[in-house]
Amino acid sequence: MNQVGNCTISQTEEYLYLDSGKIQFTYDIKKCIYRMCFDALDSTTGDAGFSVRYRGKIYTHKDFSNSTATIYLEERKDGFGGGIFAAVERSWGELKVRQTFRMIPDKAFMLVQCELVSQDYIQSDYMAPMVLSGQVFPLKAAKRPRLLYVPYDNDKWIRYKAQELQECGHSYELSAVYDDESRNGYVIGSISHDLWKTGISTHGGFGTLSNFTVFGGVATPDTRDEAMPHGPVRGKIVRSPLIFTGYYEDFRQGLMEYGDANAVFCPKLTWNLGVPFGWNSWACVTTGINYEVFRKASETLDGLKDRGFINDNTVYINFDSFWTNLSKEEMKAAISLAHSRGQKAGIYYTPFVCWSDNFDRYVENTDEKFTYRDIVARDSSGNILPPIAGGYPIDPTHPGNLMRVKAMMHYCVEMGFDYLKVDFMSHGACESVHYVRDITTGIQAYCYGLEHMCSFLKPEDIGRPFFIDFSIAPIFPYQFAHARRISCDVFGQIEDTEYMLNSLTYGFWQNNRIYAYNDPDHTCLYKSVDRPVSDYYEAQSRLNASVIAGTVLLLSDDYRNPEAALRTEKLLNPKLLEIAKTGTTFIPVETATADRASRMFVRDDGNRFYLAVFNYTREEQSIPISASRLGNLPKNPVFNSLDGSHSYSGNEFTVKLEPAQSLILVCHK
Question: What pTM was computed for the model?
Fold first, then answer.
């Protein structure tokens, strides 16, 4: 027994043992399987092997059970700190597989990967470094354990889901197995997002999981891939996704540590200014944006500065889609108007989408060198990929699209914009055949296109900060944007608020970890286009939901209507806006809500403890509150609403809410 990187190591002919202080890891040398035991458990996660596809055939750890293992151990210091790196390499015929394990002292997680190794270039389109079977990820004494389904992106109003274990299926990039009552749970997910789309396939029964496979190479309708399978990853060393696995007494803390681990592996895009406050055109006018709508929004928000609706001395007035309704002269006038008031202007773009089936038209800004038929994405038979949400995917690597995107980025900079909302990003990550032949997977192409796009928006080159906000987009990769819309489109009804808060319930951990801020979408407080006028409580809940998200805060009402302006002024409580300016997310209290949102969210600022409570129904509702479930509170806490109209005290109390009403309460410690 010896010490390497503050980890204890011992080895026999049959087993390799590693102990990081919080995790005990055992590798069965003969069977090629490993298991993890966490300090807080008296049982292991179950036996885990691997599975890879090579030359069309699936190989598993069982195929290597009689092969000779070569074990490498070294101390490794990187962004995670010191620790042990272990690799087990073995061959079966021409196929060489290496399993790698990374342990960090006093961390509740470890990192697992598998590799195919060759002296020549090889490829694989499926690699699973973690294949568990039997009784896996046990949670003792859990009455109704949950399995978290995480969607690949936020398109088509898809939802997170805390499902029961017998409800099998796929999660994307991340999952959790947990008990809502105790909050004990495992967090498992990929922290490398440059090559693979990572899937998590599960199977279980009532209260137990019998199979849990984490693999690179998922391509399903949920990843917007219906025409082609996942592309192969190529090289002399082909690596699977790097997999994070941890156990936590509170799995919500585990989700946050998972986000932090991603940021260690690949830092988020830095933003040194404050949370963007402003306005966006889509919810209130959609296709009807014009100069007068923009002018009135600029005027109204200028008048809201005294209510506290300004941050870092900045407000953004942002065009959404159909900004091309304005002439170039009108656009210049709009930007000049905003700048004259000390405001900044934003614009909208879809870099990887063709919005017409007239493929023979020339691609703009390519000097008629390319048509859209040249740049749309195609499958291996040469067929154009089918449209998604009405738009055809474009190959991000095609020179015609590179010219098109470059010209648009130059336009953004030269016109004086400071904010870019980029939408329908999943189109750029579809599996297809790419112009750059060395790029073989959708995520590779997506990263290639985004690196190109963002290269023209670097603050050090353009001489000013520039905020990049993803709208419809995969959660990963994240390092190209300051914010990402946490859900699909959200309008002004209570049902919209509940939908967005479902995404916050299970995606809260993204804020200030992989993105600087969550984006809860445009916040319409009076009337969304083609919708009825929101009632007052409904609008108040929409605003409260945005504030607790983290949060980009963009209003979206048509202020040509004086009633919309009056509603906005009445709702913008300065104390509420101070909460939003911190850019700190609230976290859910309830986490066994199936595909619904938690009704309660909390935030602990040390001296002040906030509780947000929502009624998503159109009837009166009484919501019981137990202080012991909320967090670190004094005995018999006293909660008051921000406006002082409601007060509650004691360890147990009930909040009565009108239809669609919500309250944000504060307890001073």
Answer: 0.97
Distance between CA atoms of residues 421 and 171, nearest Å: 27
How many angstroms separate the CA atoms of 253 and 256, rounded?
5
Encode burial over 538-575: b for 16+ CB neighbours within 10 A, e otherwise.
bbbbbbbbbbbbbbbbbbbbbbeeeebbebbeebbbee
Rounded distance between C-alpha atoms, residue 221 and residue 2, angstroms: 49
Give the side-chain half-sphere CA count within 13 A for 243: 33
Tokens matching residue 175: 């999952």
Instruction: Work out the burial of residue 441: count CB atoms within 10 Å of its CB; fewer than 13 is exposed, 13-18 middle, 19 or more buried.
Output: buried
Residues 319 and 345 sit within 8 Å (Cβ to Cβ): yes
* Residue whose C-alpha is closest to residue 567's, from 617, 620, 528, 604: 528
Are 5 and 83 contacting, i.e. CB atoms less than 8 angstroms apart? yes
Nearest 10 degrees: CA dihedral of 73, 74, 75, 76? -110
CA 108 to chain centre: 22
> What count of other Cβ atoms lies within 10 Å of the Cβ of residue 327?
10
Angstrom CA distances, 51 to 128, 182, 449, stand at: 5, 33, 31
Question: Cβ distance 639 to 667 under 8 Å?
Answer: yes
User: Are the CB atoms for 151 and 223 separated by under 8 Å?
Assistant: no
d(CA 630, CA 356): 51
CA atoms of 249 and 136, how far apart (whole Å): 18
Please, how many CA atoms are within 13 Å of residue 298, restricted to the half-sphere of its CB? Answer: 23
Nearest to 560 by CA among 353, 341, 292: 292
The CA distance from 450 to 151, in Å, is: 21
According to the model, what pLDDT value does residue 166 have?
Answer: 81
Side-chain-facing half-sphere of 84: CA atoms under 13 Å = 28
Q: Which residues are 57's β-sheet partners?
A: 54
Show the CA angle centred on residue 648, arms to residues 645 and 653, nearest 5°.
Answer: 140
Instruction: Kindly report the backbone phi and psi dihedral angles of residue 573, in degrees, each rounded to the nearest multiple of 5, phi listed first.
Output: -70, 125
- Rg of the Cα trace of the chain? 26
Beta-carbon-side half-sphere exposure of residue 618 (alpha carbons within 13 Å): 5
- In tens, the pLDDT along 45-63 reads 889 999 999 999 999 999 9
Q: How far apart are CA 98 and CA 657, in angstroms?
A: 58
Residue ranges of the chain with per-residue pLDDT less than 70? 1, 4-5, 40, 42-43
Tokens 């996704």 found at: 241
Question: DSSP 3-state assignment of 403?
Answer: helix
Residue 482 sits at φ, ψ, to 5 deg, of -85, -25
Alpha carbon 62 to its chain's center: 35
